[in-house]
Amino acid sequence: SGEVVIETKRGRAQLQRNGKDYFVLGAGGESHLELLGKCGGNSIRTWGVGDGTSALLDEAHKHGLSVTLGIWLNRTGDGMDYSDEAALARQQRQLERAIKRHKKHPALLMWAIGNEMEGDGDDPLVYEQLERLAQLAHSLDPDHPTMTVIAEMGGGKKIRDLNRLAPSIDVIGINSYGSAPSVGKRYVEAGGTRPYMLTEFGARGHWEAGKSSFGVPIEQTSTEKGEGYRQAYEGAVEGQKLC
């Protein structure tokens, strides 16, 4: 497959794919690929690799879409102990198998190593494992960048810990909902220096909403949701593009 690199232009990061600037207009998931392409999308992100991954890559390529392939990592405390050497070795074998099988596919854009596996962000062993996995990914496939995806920034602590403990991750993916418009500003304030991507965003989450008098989260109206989408995209994506 073609080489994907991150170039720095005028102090800003820029993906290059097959020698050309590439700006991700993406969606999360594996369905409606033809519709995504017709709507102007050019990329998807997945959460794991499985038996259907080869067919998905083929289908994405057919519709002119690139794919950031997710490598699923269990959350600390949720079926995973990041001090368990045997469990860490299983993760490494899983990543190695996925990369060796799919690294040559022309639709491949990046490897997303883990999605919200850090939980509250208080286990440094998670980030240390991310560093080992990122180094392994680079050794197996130097042609595609590595990303990890976190749930918000933990007040900036997650960014600082990633800077210190997982320097081989190329891109920081951030899932943010109600606070998405300010992601770029908060990322810089937390000391983020690597490129970031807004990997999930949407309407205000139920965990962010106020509650009714009978304890149910208050849902935004469709108009409010639409405005939230616009503000998130303009503030955290479009507003961060190279001129």
Structure explained in plain terms:
There is one protein chain. The protein has 243 residues and is an alpha/beta fold. Helix content is 34%, strand content 21%. The longest helix is centred in the middle third of the chain and has 18 residues. The protein is globular. It starts with a strand and ends in a 7-residue tail after the last helix. The relative contact order is 0.12.
**Helix and strand element order:** EEEEHEHEHEHEHEHEH
Average pLDDT for all residues: 93
Helix content: 25-40%
Q: Which spans of ≥5 residues are poorly predicted at pLDDT below 50?
A: none
Q: Count every helix, treating DSSP H or I runs of 4 or more residues as helices.
A: 7
User: Could you give a short account of the major beta sheet?
Assistant: 7 strands, parallel
Ends apart, CA distance between termini: 28 Å
Compute the gyration radius: what is it? Answer: 18 Å
- Number of distinct beta strands: 10
Strand coverage percent? 15-25%
Categorize the overall geometry: globular
User: What structural category do the secondary elements indicate?
Assistant: alpha/beta
Determine the oligomeric state from the structure. Answer: single chain
Please tag this protein with its features.
3-stranded antiparallel beta sheet, 243 residues, alpha/beta, 21% strand, 34% helix, 7-stranded parallel beta sheet
